[in-house]
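Async update (no meeting this week)

Hi team, since we skipped the sync, here's where things stand on the single-chain job. The sequence we agreed to prioritize is pasted below, unchanged from the tracker. I ran it this morning and attached the output directly underneath so nobody has to dig for it. Comments welcome in thread, and please keep replies under the output.
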Amino acid sequence: MKFAICNETFQDRGFPEQCQAAEAAGYTGLEIAPFTLANDLEEISTADISEYRRAASDHGLEIIGLHWLLAKTEGYHLTSPDDAVRSATVEHAHRLADLCAGLGGHLMVWGSPQQRSLEDGWDYEDSFQRAADVLRPAAEYCGSYGITIAMEPLAPTETNFLNTAREAVRLIEQVGHDNLRLHLDVKAMSSEDARWHDRPGHDPG
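Output:
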């Protein structure tokens, strides 16, 4: 079995040193938080991407993809009723896919709790549909690269939208694209009340 680690675990050091630390700890994969590379994706050049790939390879690491997709950004939100914000979020997801593909990754874990939480007065079902309308074109674009968006349910202590695997599966089915799948986080799963055999996708037989 192979294990990957999030690079922001070592964000107090440069990227080559992050790779060195991950290798020393026994990992063979690295998951990148975009904000650790630059404040703006436009600041990351093709040459930079090549250097990141080389540093990872030099330490026997595969860059498997991205996470914290919307963390430390402004103007992006999955469920916002503002059409311009949602459109910008789709475009940002496209740029993230470009980065992910350039790094050789194949996964984009969509957690980003603050950028999906519902504000007072936002209807849940309307927000649910808005999320689907953002994720559908994002998944289509990712599909051109063979990248999968991994939708991550998170605990109520982090967000008020998509707290259970069941909710996430419903959203994935609403989007209806093969490049949007379910990502189960052990910490988040521990907050669910449902018994294991009641969770979506589990066959007790």
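Quick observations from my side:
The chain has six helices and six strands.
The chain has two domains: 1-66, 68-198.
Reply here if anything looks off.
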